[in-house]
Design a protein that fits this description.
By secondary structure, this protein is mostly helical. It has a two-stranded antiparallel ribbon. It has a two-stranded antiparallel ribbon with strand order 2-3. Helices cover about 65% and strands about 10% of the residues. It is built from seven helices and four strands.
């Protein structure tokens, strides 16, 4: 049988909206136990069939990390929920809530239990940024003590996390899960997302420590207001862009 089957599809033009091509490869006399489907697109035109599971896991792990660190809307959302309350304990709490929520919706979407148009998901992501930014601004301008209503923020972050999980699913659907190792692909992608978030959290901690050191007069309230205004402007821009 074939051990290393690599297909490179060169049927696409320069238009990224070209329809995908689905190819199913089988080997052996029992194809139900040794079959794999790949979806080819202009961005994903090469696929190696029947790779070992560990190789597939690390490929999707890398994909998850890259998606988070190159997804500006997801990074802005993470930043604005981190700005909703300063303190490592609070940050770990909201990040955990966000992680649990997006992991649930990501899994349900990739396993095709939930289906929503990508346009609606992208619009909802921009609205989630606007929502959290407005909550931050309202609390800060009213001079409310931070972290007093953690349960409310966790509820908001959880709902927004479900939306962002559908956004992660839209991204990976452009490439597709490895059909012979579907759960491994999903697990690797999800772990990659968490690693990407941790990297961003560490960078945020570093940035805030630098700000605190060199701009000691900058209060936590002012920091929250500045971050939330920036996030609000981004959210409004993406909302208008996605509506138009």
């Amino acid at each position: 049988g074939v051990k290393n089957l690599i297909l490179d599809i060169d049927f696409f033009g320069i238009n990224s909206n070209n329809k995908p091509i689905t190819i199913k490869a089988t080997r052996g006399l029992r194809p139900t136990l040794a079959s794999e489907v790949s979806i080819f697109t202009p961005l994903n035109h090469e696929h190696q069939f029947f790779r070992p599971a560990i190789s597939i896991f690390f490929d999707y792990l890398k994909l998850g990390i890259e998606h988070v660190l190159t997804g500006t809307d997801h990074l802005i959302f993470l930043l604005v929920i981190l700005a909703s309350g300063l303190g490592i304990g609070y940050w770990l709490l909201v990040i955990t809530g966000f992680t649990i929520a997006h992991s649930i919706s990501l899994g349900l979407a990739l396993l095709e239990y939930v289906k929503l148009p990508p346009y609606s998901v992208e619009l909802a992501i921009s609205l989630s940024i606007i929502l959290v930014a407005c909550i931050n601004l309202f609390s800060s301008l009213k001079n409310k003590q931070k972290n007093t209503n953690v349960s409310r923020m966790l509820l908001v972050v959880g709902i927004c996390g479900l939306i962002h999980g559908l956004g992660f699913a839209t991204a990976i659907n452009e490439i597709g899960l490895n059909t012979s190792h579907q759960l491994i692909s999903l697990f690797g992608f999800n772990i990659g997302i968490e690693i990407g978030q941790l990297i961003f959290l560490c960078l945020t901690l570093l940035l805030l420590s630098i700000i605190k050191r060199y701009f000691s007069k900058l209060t936590e309230q002012y920091t929250t207001i500045c971050i939330s205004i920036i996030a609000l402007l981004f959210g409004l821009y993406w909302m208008v862009q996605r509506i138009i």
